[in-house]
Amino acid sequence: MTDLVRAQAERFAALDPRLPPFDDPPEGEELSAALPDGREVGGVLYRAYHGPGTPESLWAARENWELTPVLGNTGAAGMAALLGALRRRLDHTATGADSACVVAWPSRDADVTRVLLDHGLVPLNALAVRPNRPPEAEAPNGVLVRRARPVDEEEVVALRLAELEYSALVGSNVLRQDAVDVVTADVRRGLVFGGRSWLAEMDGVAVGLASCGWSTPAPGSAIAGRLTEGRWGYVGTLSVRRDARGGGVGRALMAVAHRELNLDDVPGTFLFYSPVNPLSSVFWHRQGYRPLWTFWEVRPAGALR
């Protein structure tokens, strides 16, 4: 697929200067498809299983089939042919109800949108980036933002679960039976081992949470091949209690988080959000984030058209 990889790298570079250079696709099962004019396209299919007790099981289906298309410069026609090949591949596999097909594709490539929709895929998640810039807000009167401590575990867990419950309504997250245990264990690790989490308080009551940190697009990570090399700041969770929304709590939390994350060697920050979430899709754009990759998904996997 060398020629296809080279052509796709050129296409991506022209689409969006913030995309990392497209290199060889990850390892997995290779797919191929032919266009009516005789041109061929390819892709790599990777199956992951997220078992009980894993953090990934809270934001993805148990059985996840992720396709990395290698279309060269064929655009919509190439995507249509490859998704047809994927549909035929899944016809020979028993996929359960808790399964999904996922295709990550540059958000600015509008030419392929109609094809993805026609095959039953919907944009349930996006990776968005924000270049370093000065924070734009301070805490409003009556709001105190401070670092979360181990003694705050109960409040942090409650805010994390509230965000998970809402996101499960409007995105790819899943509220599973073991969610409390999984979230509690993750929160405890972060608070004990120095994770970057901030609480917003009003009259001594926790009303908001921001959990952040730094990450690199290392092989095997969730952002491998999605961001340019180097250390990036990331926002893992932002949660504001329903009765405290609209008063600047989220902006105040992110002002503190961005001030901490925007180090000299960090090109910017990234996060994942749902484009169909009516809160996230407005708030994050106002914070200076814009989508770089969109994750198109269909559940169950067998529903791919």
Polypeptide structure, described:
- The protein is of the alpha+beta class.
- It has two domains: 2-128 and 297-303, Aminopeptidase; 134-287, Aminopeptidase (3-Layer(aba) Sandwich).
- The protein has helices spanning 2-15, 75-90, 113-118, 153-170, 179-192, 249-261, 280-286, and strands at 29-34, 40-49, 63-70, 99-106, 122-131, 143-147, 196-202, 205-215, 232-240, 268-273, 290-298.
- It has an eleven-stranded mixed sheet, sandwiched between helices.
- α6 links the parallel β9 and β10.
- α4 (153-170) packs across α5 (179-192).
- The radius of gyration is 20 Å and the shape is globular.
- It starts with a helix and ends in a 7-residue tail after the last strand.
- The mean pLDDT is 94.
SSE string, helices as H and strands as E: HEEEHEHEEHHEEEHEHE
Question: Helicity level, as a percent range?
Answer: 25-40%
User: What structural class do you assign from the helix and strand content?
Assistant: alpha+beta
* Radius of gyration of CA atoms, rounded to a whole number: 20 Å
Q: What overall geometry do the principal axes of the alpha carbons give?
A: globular
Strand proportion, as a percent range, falls in 25-35%
- Summed over residues and divided by their number, the pLDDT gives a mean of 94
- As residue ranges, the low-confidence spans are none
CATH top level label of the largest domain: Alpha Beta
Secondary-structure map:
Blueprint: H1 2-15, E1 29-34, E2 40-49, E3 63-70, H2 75-90, E4 99-106, H3 113-118, E5 122-131, E6 143-147, H4 153-170, H5 179-192, E7 196-202, E8 205-215, E9 232-240, H6 249-261, E10 268-273, H7 280-286, E11 290-298
Parallel strand pairs: 3-4, 9-10
Antiparallel strand pairs: 1-2, 2-3, 4-11, 5-10, 5-11, 6-7, 7-8, 8-9
Helix pairs in contact: 4-5
